[in-house]
Amino acid sequence: MWFNTKGENVRNGATHNTKQDVISAGVIIGAALLAWEGAVRVNQTPVYILPAPSAIAERLWQNGSYLGNAALVTLGEALGGLLLGLAVGIATATLITFLIQLERGVLALAILVKATPMVAIAPLLTIWLGFGPLPKVIITALLTFFPVLINVHSGLHAVDEAVLALFHSLDAGRWEVFRHARWPAALPYLFAALKVVAPLGVTGAVVAEWAGASAGLGRAMWLAYANLNLPMLFAAVFYSAVMSIGLYVLVITLEKQAIFWRRNNALSAD
């Protein structure tokens, strides 16, 4: 996603007005909330089965400080895990790009990690490492690692053969080829992975907190669930969703700055 000089989104040659997109999304969400509120009131659904949006909003107002503090704990764990998984994923993809003989073994191990259910690992990490933030960071890092590794590895090998031939004709070293050809080619793949794992990082931290935590949104959700306090549960889910959206928007913003040539091409085309 990028913008032209008129402040409009440009996607694949099509132009979309950002203001209209926001208004459209607001209308759709507002209509869905009104339908939800109306259905609950008309059917007189018990609050312990499905609370109305108004009841959730009231709980958000009454417990804003508590949920805000819990959200900060979860956000810290999610960011820590995302950064760790990102660093290890990029480093591993770079390693197997330089050392081709390690590629099959490393990818097989990565697939094994990916195939292991995180829900099963979270309680074990809690037993081994305690109720602090470390198990949550590790779970989030494991969720981040595989998509980053696969995407960056694919991007590093997506360089045009003509570009590689040009670098080789200039007698460029492997590091120079990596820095000036392979890494720029991998950036779009990296950000494609980050758009998936950034929101998923919050989910991973919350799931890990359900397995055992002294603070965080997962802990708040577990307590609300145990007490059939559905408005509080939905309020915590709301905070989790807002954080996920915020991280997604942050990734898009960073992408526009890092892959600046796309934005420049769009402006030139306009």
Topology record:
Blueprint: E1 2-3, E2 8-11, E3 14-17, H1 18-43, H2 53-62, H3 64-98, H4 103-115, H5 118-129, H6 134-156, H7 161-169, H8 174-210, H9 217-226, H10 230-258, H11 260-269
Antiparallel strand pairs: 1-2, 2-3
Would you give an account of this structure?
By secondary structure, the chain is mainly alpha-helical. The protein has 2 domains: 1-45; 57-269, MetI-like fold, CATH 1.10.3720.10. The protein is built from 11 helices and 3 strands; from the N terminus they run E-E-E-H-H-H-H-H-H-H-H-H-H-H. The chain has helices at 18-43, 53-62, 64-98, 103-115, 118-129, 134-156, 161-169, 174-210, 217-226, 230-258, 260-269, and strands at 2-3, 8-11, 14-17. Strands 1-2-3 form a 3-stranded antiparallel beta sheet. Helix 3 (64-98) runs antiparallel to helix 8 (174-210) and helix 6 runs antiparallel to helix 8. The radius of gyration is 23 Å and the shape is globular. It starts with a strand and ends with a helix.
Please tag this protein with its features:
globular; 270 residues; 11 helices; mainly alpha; three-stranded antiparallel sheet; MetI-like fold; 3 strands
In whole angstroms, the N-to-C terminal distance is 15 Å
Number of structurally distinct domains: 2
Radius of gyration: 23 Å
CATH class of the largest domain: Mainly Alpha
Give a quick rundown of the structure:
This protein has 270 residues and is mostly helical. It contains eleven helices and three strands, in the order E-E-E-H-H-H-H-H-H-H-H-H-H-H. The protein has two domains: 1-45; 57-269, MetI-like (MetI-like fold, Orthogonal Bundle), CATH 1.10.3720.10.
